[in-house]
């Protein structure tokens, strides 16, 4: 980062979060439904991500794919703002006055992990509401008395039935997922970005804008795939913890994964891999391109 300008990095991050939800939420809905229903011992089973998508479109229409998007927009905008802002400023602090264009893992990894740890406290409640809204579609076996009319109703009923700590159910899994995931994402993004610019540095200056967008798409997309490939089992555990109606259900993500592995093997731990990977590339590419363009428009230059 050549220079920092306080709030501007957070504004750019917020815009990146909005872009992520617009592009990625339908894939996320499919992933959550697969994780909830296909890991249960009985109930609705989906043959694949496409089967799940077709069921949602048939029974609920396009709006079914954006179920829970309201809380997701709020949560992701705030979370993304913090993630990109904290990452950028922490990385600059760790790098100090060192202006080496080559990515510095000793600055990138802890900066990404720290940003992930901080945002997990914001993200956990909004993701709990999002996931509970997503799994109560037409195919859900939830009794009508347990259904929610909207995100606020979901949050209020959760607090009423489970106490204030109920809204933070799955916090441990979220903390692990975000810390590891952000460290992997930013490491992949920074390295791919650096080496692509190295390969394309002799290209015509007239194409620089298109090259920047192309590099953003590839580096952001690959960063997203790497991130979710690393943390999907933790995400599966988080979904199960957050959507459980049993107050006494274990909140230990490792224990959850042990049970899933015993029942379904490694494949069970990666339930929802298809829609997650399909979502990861375009959603994270949109986030990075939006972030970099917003940074440029706000006058923050990147090396």
TrEMBL record:
Looking up InterPro entries in the UniProt record yields: MCP_dom_sf, MCP_transmembrane, Mitochondrial_Carrier
Keyword terms, alphabetized: Membrane, Mitochondrion, Mitochondrion inner membrane, Repeat, Transmembrane, Transmembrane helix, Transport
Q: What subcellular locations does the record give?
A: Mitochondrion inner membrane
Spans of the Solcar repeats are: 4-93, 103-195, 211-297
Which domain of life, per UniProt? Eukaryota
Q: What is its main location?
A: mitochondrion
- Pfam families recorded for this chain? Mito_carr
SUPFAM superfamilies in the record, alphabetically?
A: Mitochondrial carrier
GO CC terms, sorted: mitochondrial inner membrane
GO terms for molecular function, please? L-ornithine transmembrane transporter activity
Residues annotated as transmembrane: 65-87, 107-124
Q: Which topology term describes how it sits in the membrane?
A: Multi-pass membrane protein
GO BP, one example?
mitochondrial L-ornithine transmembrane transport
Q: Which residues form the signal peptide?
A: none
Name the family. Answer: Belongs to the mitochondrial carrier (TC 2.A.29) family.
Q: What is this protein called?
A: Mitochondrial arginine transporter BAC1
Record organism: Buddleja alternifolia
- Which taxonomic lineage is given here? Eukaryota, Viridiplantae, Streptophyta, Embryophyta, Tracheophyta
């Amino acid at each position: 980062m050549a220079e920092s300008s306080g709030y501007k990095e957070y504004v750019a991050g917020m815009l990146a979060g909005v872009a992520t939800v617009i592009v990625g939420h339908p894939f996320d809905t499919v992933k959550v439904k697969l994780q909830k229903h296909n890991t249960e011992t009985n109930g609705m089973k989906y043959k694949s991500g496409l089967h799940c998508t077709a069921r949602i479109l048939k029974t609920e229409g396009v709006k079914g794919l954006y179920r829970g998007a309201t809380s997701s927009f709020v949560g992701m905008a705030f979370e993304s703002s913090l993630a990109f802002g904290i990452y950028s400023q922490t990385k600059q602090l760790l790098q100090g006055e060192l202006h080496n264009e080559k990515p510095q893992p000793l600055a990138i990894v802890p900066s990404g992990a720290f940003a992930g740890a901080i945002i997990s406290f914001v993200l956990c409640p909004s993701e709990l509401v999002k996931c509970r809204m997503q799994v109560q579609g037409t195919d859900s076996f939830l009794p009508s008395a347990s259904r929610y009319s909207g995100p606020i109703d979901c949050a209020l009923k959760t607090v009423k039935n489970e106490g204030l700590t109920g809204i933070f159910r799955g916090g441990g899994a979220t903390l692990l997922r975000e810390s590891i995931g952000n460290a992997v994402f930013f490491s992949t993004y920074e390295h791919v970005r650096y080496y692509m610019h190295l390969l394309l540095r002799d290209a015509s200056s007239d194409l620089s804008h298109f090259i920047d967008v192309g590099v953003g798409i590839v580096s952001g997309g690959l960063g997203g795939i790497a991130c979710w490939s690393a943390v999907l089992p933790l995400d599966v555990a988080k979904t199960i913890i957050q959507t459980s109606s049993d107050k006494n259900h274990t909140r230990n993500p490792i224990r959850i994964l042990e049970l899933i592995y015993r029942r379904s093997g490694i494949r069970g731990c990666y339930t929802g891999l298809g829609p997650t990977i399909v979502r990861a590339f375009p959603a994270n590419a949109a986030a990075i391109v939006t972030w970099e363009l917003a940074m440029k428009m706000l006058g923050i230059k990147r090396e």
